[in-house]
Amino acid sequence: MTVLSRPAHAARPAVRPAPRWAHLAAHTITLLALPSGIWRLGLALGLHLGYTEEGYRTVCPPGFWGPGYLVLLAVLSEGAALSALGLVQRWGEVVPRWIPVIGGRTIAPSAVLIPAWAGVAVLAVLWTPLAAWWSMPGDDMTPAGHTVVGFLYLPLVAWAPLLAALAVAYRRRRRREPARVTSQ
Fold this sequence. Notes:
Largest sheet: 2 strands, antiparallel
Number of domains: 1
């Protein structure tokens, strides 16, 4: 299986543009991780943000690694969310020219779709249970904090289904056969 093929300028594939809804979904995904990421950054800065004193020490232990872990988690989450843009942008089809050696080469659809579907599976396992957040115990949080954190994390439940829809749309666009024209 070849991940990269000849340079795109040699034989540029006729790829249909992503539909408007897919662009909107990809940009929405980038925003889903922001509320929880900002909340994590606040925890890393020493704000309790809804945790009791004991609960805060559990989530953000003193020293470098507690806050460092929260910052890293916030950055990685947003980076993963931003990668959804590759399913609707040209850089998800052709390696940008500024990248040495492989710049300009067409990316095999499987090189994009395998990580996308793996992401769908991981995100579904991670975030779907949060739909039941308010039925989960929040002993290490204040009642108001438990409610607010639920609303900050609830958008993440939509990440897996939106990513799945984008993966399907990407696959349809990257098919080798031409688009079918339907009459109305």
